[in-house]
Design brief:
By secondary structure, the chain is α/β, with parallel strands linked by helices. It has eight helices and seven strands; from the N terminus they run βαββαβαβααβαααβ. The structure holds NADPH dihydro-nicotinamide-adenine-dinucleotide phosphate (NDP). NADPH dihydro-nicotinamide-adenine-dinucleotide phosphate binds next to helix 1 and helix 6. The site of NADPH dihydro-nicotinamide-adenine-dinucleotide phosphate (NDP) has 29 residues, from helix 1 and helix 6. It comes from Cutibacterium porci.
């Protein structure tokens, strides 16, 4: 167990696969007691699997109750669950917009609001939201997704102003192009277009993201809040 993380309880939403599963596994490996939530309710080895749909406030409450019972109050929250419903604006249906906002942004609000009670009582909390380079850079075909990820910035900074005096931090990690199920769905042409624009000249891996999240949730990062940390090989520089 790391001396910096005395067995703190962490909950990672969207922890069944991809970036969230990697974050959950990494925190477990570093001495945290970790729960991973998702609709499918699967989790990496050593991590408590919990079913939870972030679009449903009752489901979120039930998931937190289960984690509180089995592990204790949540001290570290990684709001990572996210979806895409890409399409050009002219053809984007309103439900594609609202569904993405409801999962990515309102979903983050639901879990943060539920977590904030115990964090405020404990006068300690670490909240990290998985945003995206696309939130500040924009992306054709992702008006819904970019809006949801940009909205996280105002959310994190408002939470920092509301709860900063209670020992609670709230930050964004903004990954670039990371190889997961989400990006595997993209056409090869789009992938090649990204590769040309990434100064690191490679796609990112989930391991590139986990170290940054581990820092942001650590006890020693208590004076870092309202920040956006890009993990994008330089793709979003200047934004
Ligand atoms: P994946 O599609 O691999 O994983 C998404 C995760 O979110 C799954 O665990 C999924 O589980 C969960 N999820 C989706 N909808 C819901 C819901 N309604 N309630 C609860 N859980 C849900 O995506 P990635 O790992 O690639 O992405 C993770 C996060 O990182 C997302 O927020 C994404 O926007 C962001 N990101 C990804 C980038 C990339 O290049 N991959 C770049 C920048 C940001 P289940 O389906 O079982 O519910």
């Amino acid at each position: 167990m790391s001396p910096d993380t005395p067995g703190r309880v962490a909950l990672v939403t969207g922890g069944s696969r991809g970036i969230g599963a990697a974050i959950a596994a990494d925190l477990h490996a570093h001495g945290y007691r970790v729960a991973a939530t998702s609709r499918s309710g699967t989790a990496p080895d050593g991590v408590l699997p919990v079913s939870c749909d972030v679009t449903d406030a009752d489901s979120v409450d039930a998931a937190f109750c289960q984690v509180e019972q089995e592990l204790g109050p949540v001290e570290v929250l990684v709001a990572n669950a996210g979806i895409t419903r890409d399409g050009l604006l002219a053809r984007m249906k309103e439900e594609d917009f609202t569904e993405v906002l409801d999962t990515n942004l309102t979903g983050a609000y639901r879990v943060i609001r539920r977590a904030a009670r115990a964090m405020t009582r404990a006068r300690f909390g670490r909240i990290v939201l998985t945003s995206s380079v696309v939130g500040l850079l924009g992306s054709p075909g992702q008006v819904n997704y970019a809006a949801s990820k940009a909205g996280m910035l105002g959310m994190a900074r408002s939470i920092t102003r509301e709860l900063g005096s209670r020992g609670i931090t709230c930050n964004l990690v903004a990954p670039g192009f990371i190889s997961t199920d989400m990006t595997d769905a993209l056409p090869q042409k789009v992938v090649e277009g990204y590769l040309e624009r990434i100064p690191a000249k490679r796609l990112g891996s989930v391991d590139d993201v986990v170290a940054t999240v581990r820092f942001l949730v650590s006890d020693s990062a208590g004076y870092v809040s309202g920040a956006v940390i890009p993990v994008d090989g330089g793709l979003g520089m200047g934004h």
